[in-house]
Amino acid sequence: MTKKIIYIILILFLVFIPITLAGCKIKIGSYTVNNFTITKKKPNNFYYTNSLAKNLTLESSIKIKLMDTNFYKEKDLSIEDIDTVRNFTKALKKNNFIEKPKDLPEKPLYKLFFTFNKEKYVINVYSEKYISVYPWDGNYSMDYIDMEGIQPLYNLCGLCKYLIPR
């Protein structure tokens, strides 16, 4: 009789413990386990921009959509416009990458949506001076870029204003 009770308790223990632990989660990097989130420090302040530039260089299938956030007008970028964005990423220097500016507007003027085969990125264009870069589903904070010193030909705000005038 006691062996039966021990077997029943053992079976209940083996069945219910995994069920109760299945609801808990911990996130480690991109892995989730129990109710704790352990975040890694962002490797550098140009992490997402570097990944975006790599995709712009290596991917053959690129789609970029521009959206005016005030009037919600949209426009697909042509091959020449995509080349301007590529040249912009090549013109960036390490000193263009900054911490989040205190005078950054809350809402960007324009958004650029990049769609590659496996990844998606967004660039928020705040002004002639500031933009931010981040992936659709990133784990770190955005990359903030000060566009001072970039040739006016490659300034993304100028490109956006040219394609969708305000």
Describe the structure.
- Helix content is 32%, strand content 23%.
- The chain is an alpha+beta fold.
- It has 2 domains: 2-38, no CATH class; 47-163, Uncharacterised protein PF16224, DUF4883 (Dna Ligase, domain 1), CATH 3.30.1490.
- The longest helix is centred in the N-terminal third of the chain and has 20 residues, at 2-21.
- The termini are far apart.
List the helices and strands and how they pair.
Blueprint: H1 2-21, E1 27-28, E2 31-32, E3 37-38, H2 47-58, E4 63-68, E5 74-76, H3 79-91, E6 97-98, E7 110-115, E8 120-125, E9 130-135, E10 143-146, H4 156-163
Parallel strand pairs: 1-3
Antiparallel strand pairs: 1-2, 4-5, 4-7, 6-10, 7-8, 8-9, 9-10
Q: In the residues, how many domains can be counted? A: 2
Number of strands: 10
Residue-averaged pLDDT, rounded? 85
- Residues in helix, %: 25-40%
Number of helices: 4
- Overall, the morphology is elongated
> Which CATH architecture of the largest domain?
2-Layer Sandwich
- The CATH topology annotation of the largest domain reads as Dna Ligase, domain 1
What is the CATH superfamily label of the largest domain? Uncharacterised protein PF16224, DUF4883
The structure class reads: alpha+beta
Task: Please compute the radius of gyration using only Cα atoms.
Answer: 23 Å
- Uncertain spans, ≥5 residues at pLDDT below 50? 26-36
Q: From N to C, what is the helix and strand string?
A: HEEEHEEHEEEEEH
Distance between the termini: 84 Å
Largest sheet: 7 strands, antiparallel
Beta-strand proportion: 15-25%
Q: Which strand order spans the largest sheet, edge to edge or round the barrel?
A: 5-4-7-8-9-10-6
For the record, the CATH class of the largest domain is Alpha Beta
